[in-house]
Specification:
single chain; 457 residues; alpha/beta; 3-stranded antiparallel β-sheet; Aspartate Aminotransferase, domain 2; Aspartate Aminotransferase, domain 1; 2 domains; binds ligand F0G
């Protein structure tokens, strides 16, 4: 059989609410043209994020009842700890309520004024946590990774030459750790090769600098390695993931992605001293080290999710179904960041709407149009999220890419939902010339994309 079907059947359903175009026009205006301000019930297909939006399995829901809610020494924590240890090999597993809480603890401890944290590409919360500590968040993606049209296997890779010369110049005094984000979310969900992970680790070791993974989407990355990297076709996704972690000294993890849960995360490290200091902060800000901001039932579901996500039939369906969306809209003339990523399709809004310059936010304009046409919620990842206007010179500095992310929640939408999205995008392609740019009317000092307000030009 050539067809790949969803490797599950549906036991519990959540009805969708349909709205008219007129209703959506009013809703969007009311929201200040910011899709984060729209009520979820006013969205038909929600592709805002793949984070915390997964459907849990019956086995995970069963685990919710079995969750051990003990404040200290919860059985569910032991199960999570064992699962993570088997997978990653790291000594200390420190649970947090989500990924950014792990980032905050880590960068509180290792960041600070004058320090530099290199990453293939920081995701927005990672960048914000590094910068809030006073350190500089430096992206070192490979040049090929920034070309939206190039088809290559591992466009998420770190630029190893740039990393090596940076570490040579600055050394461990200024660089507390190096991070590698797998898959590279801010770079269109592109995977990182095992060779790149291994070589990054070698460069770090040569300079005596710890190496961490931002492991949110480790299973999707592992499956890309299986499909694309010589020597891995006959290994299981679990074996590949274990090898990925074996090169690192620690990781941050958001269970809301490849943990297949709605809430959860952890920080894992080998360094005993660092772990001790992290636990001290954890107790003050998240909770006791055997629950860290999570309920016992969350810990239980998370442990089970980390096993399920490595099932090969699931990963095969996951990677293939995301690519299906990308291939279909690309064939209709929507320029996408090539090749399709693991958790999302990124539309190249600059190429889609060449008449809208970056300072008029083509990605935001496109995201709003997708909502108007079909009630689809997507996310701008471009100059609204990463662009800056210098307060002194009023000079606008655009983001390197203007993208709209269609993130696919795990195990939530069926092929017909995706076919509906394809049809909506087809109609946007037909009238793309009529779409207008946008202007920001309000913005907060940090992470402006969440709360900014816009108007149509
Ligand atoms: N690192 C990466 C690569 C991420 O994509 C995210 C979250 C985080 C860290 C933070 O994890 O949300 O659990 O605090 N990304 C979500 C997204 C929000 O939509 O891509 P968190």
């Amino acid at each position: 059989m050539k067809i790949i079907i969803e490797p599950f059947k549906i036991k519990s359903v959540e009805p969708l609410r349909f709205t008219s175009r007129e209703e959506r026009e009013a809703i969007l205006k009311q929201a200040g043209y910011n899709l984060f301000n729209i009520q979820a019930e006013d969205v038909l297909i929600d592709l805002l994020t793949d984070s915390g939006t997964s459907a849990m399995s019956a086995h995970q829901w069963g685990g919710m009842i079995e969750g051990d809610e003990a404040y200290a020494g919860s059985k569910s924590f032991s199960r999570l700890e064992q699962t993570v240890r088997d997978l990653t090999g790291f000594r200390h597993i420190i649970p947090t309520h989500q990924g950014r809480a792990a980032e905050k603890i880590l960068f509180n401890l290792v960041g600070g004024e004058g320090r530099i944290v290199p990453n293939n590409t920081h995701f927005d919360t990672t960048r914000a946590n590094v910068e809030m500590s006073g350190a500089e968040a430096l992206d070192l993606p490979i040049a090929d990774g920034l070309d939206p049209t190039l088809i290559a296997d591992f466009k998420g890779n770190m630029d190893l030459e740039a990393l090596d010369s940076l570490l040579e110049k600055e050394g461990p005094e200024r660089i507390p750790l190096v991070m590698l984000t797998v898959t590279n979310n801010a770079n269109a969900g592109q995977p990182v090769s095992m060779a790149n992970i291994r070589q990054t680790a070698e460069i770090c070791r040569a300079h005596d600098i710890p190496f961490f993974l931002d492991a949110c989407r480790f299973a999707e990355n592992a499956y890309f390695i299986k499909l694309r990297e010589p020597g891995y076709a006959n290994k299981t996704a679990r074996e590949i993931a274990q090898e990925m972690f074996s090169y690192a000294d620690g990781c941050t993890m958001s269970g809301k992605k490849d943990g297949l849960v709605n809430m959860g995360g952890f920080l894992a490290v080998n360094d005993d001293q660092l772990a001790g200091r992290a636990r001290n902060i954890l107790i003050v800000t998240e909770g006791f080290p055997t629950y860290g901001g999570l309920a016992g039932h969350d810990l239980e579901a998370f442990a089970r999710g980390l096993d399920e996500v490595l099932a090969e039939d699931y990963l095969k369906y996951r990677i293939r179904s995301v690519a299906y969306l990308g291939e279909h809209i690309a064939a209709l003339g929507a320029p996408i960041f090539q090749p399709p990523g693991g958790h999302a399709i990124y539309i190249d809004a600059k190429a889609f709407l060449p008449h809208i310059p970056p300072h008029e936010y083509p990605g935001q304009a496109l995201a709003c149009e997708l909502y108007l046409v079909g009630g689809i919620r997507s996310c701008e990842i471009g100059s609204v999220m990463f662009g800056k206007t210098d307060s002194q010179s009023a000079q606008f500095k655009p983001a390197p890419l203007e993208m709209v992310r269609l993130a696919i929640p795990r195990r939530v939408y069926t092929k017909s939902h995706i076919d509906y999205v394809v049809e909506c995008i087809e109609s946007v392609v037909r009238k793309r010339d009529e779409i207008k740019g946008m202007r920001i009317t309000y913005e907060p000092p940090v992470l402006r994309h969440f709360t900014a307000q816009f108007e149509i030009l």
